[in-house]
Structure formats: C-alpha cells, structure tokens
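Students often ask why we bother predicting the structure of a whole assembly rather than each chain alone. The short answer is interfaces. A chain on its own may look different once its partners are present, and contacts between molecules only exist in the joint model. In this exercise we take two input lines together and write out one structure for the complete complex. Read the inputs first and try to guess which parts will touch.
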Amino acid sequence: MPAKVAYSGREVTVMNDIIELLEEHRSVRAYEDRDVSDEMLDAIVRAAWRAPSSYNAQEVSVVVVRDPERRRRIAEIAGGQPWIAQAPVFFAVVIDYHKTAVGVGMAEGEQRIHRELEGVIMGAVDAGIALEALMVAARGLGLAIVPIGGIRRDPQAMIDLLELPPLTFPVVGLCVGHAAVVNPLKPRMALPSFRHEEVYRAERIPAAIEAYDREIVAHWRRVGRPGGEAWSRNMAAYLGAGEPRPVGEALRRQGFLA
Amino acid sequence: MPAKVAYSGREVTVMNDIIELLEEHRSVRAYEDRDVSDEMLDAIVRAAWRAPSSYNAQEVSVVVVRDPERRRRIAEIAGGQPWIAQAPVFFAVVIDYHKTAVGVGMAEGEQRIHRELEGVIMGAVDAGIALEALMVAARGLGLAIVPIGGIRRDPQAMIDLLELPPLTFPVVGLCVGHAAVVNPLKPRMALPSFRHEEVYRAERIPAAIEAYDREIVAHWRRVGRPGGEAWSRNMAAYLGAGEPRPVGEALRRQGFLA
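Now the answer. The structure tokens for the assembled complex follow.
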C-alpha cells in the first residue's frame, strides 16, 4: 500500500484517484466487440479474492464465464439483458458454503451456519464485498461494468448451467468489457437521506424523495429518455408488483435454511 | 475517471495503484488515538453513496457513529471487540426498505419486496457493495479498517441504539481510523478454489483446503500466534457450533419476511 497521504485540496495525491473513481461509478449496457485480456482478468479476480470475508471463511467463489453460448443463456435467464451476451466477460458471484463444509468435515465437525438466515446474510454481504472489489478493479483498469441481480430470477437455471454443488448459490453477476458508450452519472437521492449521524433520521426522507423524484425525471429528459419515471413510481413498480422470485425455493433445494 | 489505461508490466499507470490497494487488503484491530478529519469522512461516505444498488433502489443507508459512549456500547453488542471503542469512526451499514416504502407509498403502491427472502438478499448484497466502497475509500486515504459482522449478534440492541425505524436492519459495520500497527497480509486459499472457469470445479477443494491449513498455521506462527488453528478447525468452531444468531427474529420484528 502506498504511504499514508493527506486528503486536501492542496495535496493532489495518487490516492485521490481512488476517491474519484468511486464517486464516478456508472453502469454501462453497451460494449465494444473486444475481449478483455487475460492479464486484466487475472488482476480483477485477484482483487476480489483478496477482499475480506466474515471469520476468514472465504465463503464466496467466482465463476468466470467467457463462452459466448453460455453468456447468451445467462442473458435469457436474467430476463433478457443483451449486454450479458455482448460483454466478453461475465462473473457469477457465488455464496459458497460447499468449500467451508468440506473444511468443517475435515475437522470432524458439522456445519450449521447455512441452515440459518445468518448464513445467507453473511454470504450475501461477503458476495457484495467481492462484487464491489471486481467492479472497482475493472473500472480501475479502464473497463466498464454492469452488475446483474437478474440471475436471481431463475437461480436454479444458473445452478444447472454453472454446475454448482449443494450449499452454493449464485447470488449476483457482473458484466465486464470495453464501453461502447459513456453514460452520464445518475443522480443519487440527497446525501442526508443516506448518511445519518449517530442515529437514523426518518423525518428527512419524504422531502428527500420529493426532490429526487423531480431530479431524476429531469435527468431522464436530459439523457434522452423523456418518458422516464420518478423514482417513487419506479419503486412501486419494481418493489411492489410482479411475481415473487423463486429465491427461497432455490436456496432450500441447495441445502440452505433446512 | 482517468482515461483508459493498459495494464501491463511496462506501463506503470496511476490506475495500477487501485489494483495494488485491492490486493493489499488487511484488517487492523489497533488504532491510534487520533480522529479522522471531516473532509476524509465526507469523501468515504460519498464513495458508498455513489455505489450502485439494485433497481437504483438505494436501499442502503449508513449511520456514522463517532460518539465514544455509543461506540463503547457497540463494542459490547459485537461480543467485546475493543477496537470499535478505540477507532474514532464506526459506520453502521443498514438495509433500508423504510426509504423505499415511503417512496412506494407516495406512488400509491404497496411495497412487497421486504416480505421476501429476495429482499433480504438484495439488501445484504447492496450493503456489501457499500461496505467495500467504504473500505476502499478509507484505505485509499491511508486509513485503516476492520469490518464488523458481530453487530448481528444482537441486531435488536443496534436497532434500539441507532433508533432505526421499521423495515431497516443493521447488517454490518466498519471501524475506521489510523492504524497503530500494520499487520502482514493474511494468506488466502489457493486461487483455483475461488476462481472457476465456466463451471464450478468441486474436485479442487479438498487439496486446496489441506494446503491452506498448513499455510495458515505457518502464518500464525510467523505473526506470533503459535497456537493459531488450521482454517478447517476454525471453520468447524465458527460455522458449526455456538448459539444461532437472533437474526431472523430481529428481521421479523422490523417487518421483514412477514
């Protein structure tokens, strides 16, 4: 790690590029027909491999999918997301209590954590850590990314496709490639709705949402999507309606929560 | 974001510092008695605020805890982790379907996702993304960190302490401060146990664990913890025994999965 640095307007240091990179996250859904080099791929995967995990359990694995036919299939499983077929690399981030169960068995113990909601949550948090490490590493190499939660529309199809053993679960994915377009940054809801001091301030939320609804509609108009909806209407559509995802069933079939 | 850069041995670019930083993750459990500046704190929180979330739901919030008495209490809740009281900043990363429910209500919908396991998993993954963004940003500023899953030992105590409303859940925490010591890097299980090509290769795991058990025991000896256990024995202890964590009960009391 580089030496400690001060963060101030006067001292422009190499480390401020990291803050800048993190502040400029954007998801890209159009990719050039150009592969990612093995060297870059190695660096990206190693970044996630070195990320921390609860109890050092390392209960996350990554399946690297480059085969075009397999990516085309994942694009379908995720509900028709053509960028998965287009981007040259897809990472499936997997909660992996198979690995830990083998270790527990070697020590003549019996693994219990996957039976509890705690195990699912711990695995999902650590998968999120690994996913962000993949995203930051890829973007740090000048590549573009888009995370894919849509693989949870049909987890069993992903399990079959990736030949995942019991006690593993494909929780989230990531497309990586060379951007064909550079999107403008999407605005976020005002910082005080995200950052709370000492205690949570629920009274801030309604006004923040009202302002954000106006801001995001203006954003959609600016980027050429004049029919784009307010955030609150999108949330009603995405988080309120539709078929429940078969996540619980797929988890139980894999041996979780049982 | 800086222009695209090649990653190769010959071209040493600013962006390779990001790969280096990610590969050199280490958790620190001893902190100097020195505060983190407001400017650094702002930069760290903004990095997580700008991180992506599923459906742009922004269903994650962060409670910044600097008050020493409150940190002392969190150190207890987490099972006696003195570094939480020692490090000047503690971030509680919160799954936040309160915010989205207010939005859904404004759009005259009814939020359903928090009732499903899918909602818990989505929130936990996005919390993990935010956590890694906090960690990378802090480390990019020369600060040290240690993530804290132990707040899930007593989620209700955290909910009370941080005055969290229904439909929110304190899923993971993070200590940030100035390192009093610099730990050596902890070895990981061999990369092929983490990285799989196209399909999962379960046959790799047993030999990887056997080698890692030897490697981590040697690591403990090297860092002055000669009684340190093999990974498989630690996993049997941490993932197999002990009281189940009251995560399901606390989630249901907050209105999840109901």
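Check your guess against this: Residues 1-14 of chain B have pLDDT under 50 and may be disordered.
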